[in-house]
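Q: Here's a chain of 313 amino acids. Please give me its 3D structure as tokens.
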Amino acid sequence: MSSHTIKNISAIDLRDRDPSLPPLIAEPQNTIAVLQKYDFQFKKQFGQNFLIDLHVLGKIAASADLKEDDLCLEIGPGIGSLTQIMAERTKKVVAVEIDDRLISILNENLAAYPNVDLVHADFMSLDLAAFFKEHGLDRPVKVVANLPYYITTPIIMGLFESGVPLSMVVVMVQEEVAQRMQAKPGSKEYGALSLAVQYYAEPYLAAHVPKNCFIPRPNVGSAVIRLTRREKPPVRTANEKLMFSLIRASFGQRRKTLVNSLSGSPQLSFSKEEVTEALHDIGLDEKVRGEALDLEAFARLADRLNKKGPLFG
């Protein structure tokens, strides 16, 4: 078990609630009843896998540390299982769903929750700054979601890179992706995603989730990861764009040395001699590979190469 796994967060008991509230959508029999009522057929292109495990949902809620005054954003609410849990505990939930077949289901399932703002849209096509402003997300938001696995990385990186106000992101992702997000230098999981996520946030693996917690069962293992937004990046660099270009090029072909990866990248304009000299200047051997460098080393390398001229030819 990774040292970055949250060991102390206990799942919230979701059944401990006001009996006058609507039944929990996530109870397996209730989820099945909704699917049968609407004759709902899952669409593979939307990556739809609905959570039916209250313990896992309670773990997500606990990891997000939901408070009465919280503003939450959910991407891909499905039939509203997690949305309901957030709506009962927070001030506002903005839920973005791409599948038009689910909008009427969500409207019915969440009718008792006026603090849910349901949006029918493709999250990937949104102007996030304008969207946050339009929906009153004007202070740090908690993004809590069971994400479609095929767009996990662009969603998470899009949120961080956009500069919208975030306090944390707590999401269900493919287990392999969760491991990569929290990986450290030298491990086989370590790569460009590890560095990008850790530049913006502190990752913690909250739970491993078996396949039988979903309808339908996914083909891969899943995990809940919490990404707590950093107040400021852990490293400073004069050229952030160059640093990330170096990171991407370094892991494009993992078995290559940094000298070959960076000098051979069509996105960069450095010679083997320039890269070798820059590595020596920061105390690294010319045979080093990208997987050996941490964020600080990439920032130092970017600053050294930044002095050699423009990034792009």
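Q: Can you summarize the key feature?
A: The domain at 240-306 is CATH 1.10.8.100 (Helicase, Ruva Protein; domain 3).
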